[in-house]
Amino acid sequence: MSPLENVREAFRSIRANLLRTVLTALILSIGLFALVGILTSIDAMKNALSETFASLGANSFELHAKGYTNRFQRGGVKGKQYPPIDYLQAKLYKKAMGDDAQVGVSAFISGAAEMKANGIKTNPNMQVIAGDENYLKIQGYNLSEGRIFSQTELNSGANVMVVGDEIKQKLFPKQSPVGQYVSALGRRFLIVGLLEKSGSGMGGGGADRLALLPLETGNQMPRQRALTFDIKTATDKPGTLAYLMGQATGKMRAVRHDRLGQEDSFTVESSESLAADLDSISGKVKAGGSVMAFITLLGASIALMNIMLVSVTERTREIGIRKALGATALQIRQQFLIEAIVICLLGGTLGIVLGVLGGNGVAKLIGSESFYVPWGWMMLGLLICVGVGLSSGYYPASKAAALDPIDSLRYE
């Protein structure tokens, strides 16, 4: 028999035992759905995050106090905690960098603020940030209306604000918010600018829920604890980021009074280091998901082997007739192996398609805007299908090929 005839015979056998074959194929589909779905969703989210890092500027890095967040750990144990970067240190660092780079200083004021205007309130999930004159440019935010803060407003700590699109849609749906007043955090602010609509931003509000204040204004507001200032440094000169990071480290050590021989009391994070952390985390998630999917695929291969053994027993007389008509042991083995592979490919193809759709669906829920097609994982899934078919069908095929034609013809 030619390979094409073997494939036709495989479909004939599948139609003869349709329910049993469908159930086995579904087991394989579930395994590949889990495997491809997990890998696709992780890669889709990585792509979306990579685009986010790129939009924040490839030639930029951030400075944070070491140990003040959970990012700095050694072997799972949190390292020494250093004091946060305060307002004076941030200003001294910015002055020390001078014209070598653009330095943006900001402070997180609130992530659950409520805005009020004209008797209307927003949801209590608006983010209030205090930033300097470079904040918008370094973060990649653009204005659709109005202006940024003037130098006088920045120096005096004026009650002015730049708001995101969601705040505008909620409080001023039919008019421009520029020139209007809004109440937040116990103060009344004049809106001087409106940010362009940015979208979900991987599950967050992006710039749409942002309310930006002058840095001095945020520093003067009453609070229960000291503000933590974030510093982002950017350069327009490609290829100089590594040199600039070294220069910034030296100047921040001087500002923080780190003694000679003492480790840095801060961390320097670029988009490349964040991407490396993401790769490490996603690799662990992939490994865990792959183990679970492998267990499912192992169960599918055992079920398929059982079906093929039953098929060999049921078709013993048919095998005897084929051998009596001149079929060789190799041809019989090929027939059953191809049948097992066809079953795996049918179930595997369904699982791969569902995995791609499901993985992109998960990424979409988290905020990814693009549809990712993992050609590499799809090819791997098809190879797994063939491998499962060969491993599950080889023993039943060998058993069928070894049957004695005389005994087979006598089998009832």
UniProtKB/TrEMBL annotation:
Transport as UniProt keyword: no
Membership in a protein family: Belongs to the ABC-4 integral membrane protein family.
GO annotation, cellular component aspect: plasma membrane
UniProt topology in membrane: Multi-pass membrane protein
InterPro entries linked to this entry: ABC3_permease_C (IPR003838), MacB_PCD (IPR025857), Macrolide_Exporter_MacB (IPR050250)
Source organism, top-level taxon: Bacteria
Domain MacB-like periplasmic core: 21-221
Main location: membrane
Record protein name field: ABC transporter permease
Localization annotation: Cell membrane
UniProt keyword annotations, A-Z: Cell membrane, Membrane, Transmembrane, Transmembrane helix
Pfam entry (one): MacB_PCD
Sequence intervals crossing the membrane: 21-42, 291-313, 336-357, 377-395
Signal peptide span: none
Organism of this sequence: Hymenobacter properus
Keyword Membrane included in the entry's annotation: yes
One Gene Ontology term of the molecular function aspect: transmembrane transporter activity
ABC3 transporter permease C-terminal domain span: 291-404
